[in-house]
Design brief:
It is built from ten helices and 15 strands. It has helices at 3-15, 20-27, 31-43, 65-68, 73-84, 99-109, 122-128, 153-159, 185-196, 235-243; strands at residues 17-19, 48-50, 53-55, 92-95, 115-119, 134-138, 142-143, 150-151, 164-170, 173-174, 180-182, 198-204, 216-217, 226-229, 247-250.
């Protein structure tokens, strides 16, 4: 995908649907050019073409994982830096699968913090391999998806052997009451196991997740102790999170 097509994906991920008229106006280009973009995104199973516009597929988007790494790069960097500021020597951490979690792990690689990290992500395990001060433990199980997530009973059984100072959790969107949501039940079961074993559970989510919903409730809103994001949630979601006792931590360059 080119830059404009990435931006179209980001818009539709946030808003659920966009018309050809709206997209043509946003990008100041012809309707024909937008239609070509939409045809390509539909043909590759990333978005769904509808009459007069484009939307998410069956309530969700399906971007390739390498493409997702190119979305919201700067917000993810800030979120990763803010999360890294919580870490002290001798901690035991759970770091979830996902592009924001990967950004966080890569940030830790630059530090000399001494801690143990348990992860269901093959990509994070590889990034931390042979680091002199970070001990990386990758869960056993089934490598199910292209993002390198390891899931299943073996992954959960290993996670249950640890007590985590922090569990850093990724997810795909929010329910109306502030509950974090995801698409894959197998991944959700791994996330829940880590949260049960954590003193503090921290959600990592850039602002594109605020207007998305997924199909599986990951936890109750109050099961997250903190949410680290690049901007404040919109009013109703912010109210629901505050009411549930979730601390919203803004990741800004001057934080």
């Amino acid at each position: 995908m080119n830059k404009r097509q990435h931006e179209i994906l980001d818009i539709v991920s946030r808003e659920g649907y966009a018309t050809i008229d709206d997209l043509a106006g946003r990008f100041d280009i012809s309707h024909q050019t937008i239609r070509r973009d939409i045809i390509l995104l539909d043909r590759n199973g990333i978005l769904k073409r509808f009459h007069g516009g484009v939307g998410i597929i069956d309530g969700r988007t399906r971007p390739e994982y390498d493409d997702k790494r190119q979305l919201a790069i700067e917000p993810k960097r800030r979120i990763a830096a803010r999360a890294a500021g919580l870490i002290e020597d001798r901690m035991t951490l759970f770091i979830d699968v996902g592009t924001t979690a990967e950004a966080f792990a890569h940030g830790l690689v630059q530090s000399r913090t001494r801690c143990r990290i348990v992860t269901p992500s093959l990509a994070i395990g590889q990034a931390l391999a042979e680091h002199p001060t970070l001990e990386a433990i990758v869960t056993g199980g089934v490598a199910k998806t292209r993002d390198g997530a390891v899931v299943g009973p073996l992954a959960i059984a290993l996670i249950e052997q640890f007590s985590f100072d922090y569990a850093f959790i990724g997810f795909s969107g929010f329910d109306g009451d502030g509950a974090p949501m995801d698409f894959d039940l197998d991944k959700v079961l791994v996330k829940r196991a880590a949260m049960r074993r954590a003193a503090i559970s921290v959600g990592l989510a850039d602002s594109s997740k605020y207007r998305r919903r997924a199909s599986v409730r990951l936890a109750q809103a109050g099961d997250l102790d903190q949410l680290i994001s690049d901007s404040q949630p919109p009013g109703p979601l912010a109210h629901a999170l505050h009411a549930a006792g979730v601390e919203i931590v803004l990741a800004t360059d001057d934080a």
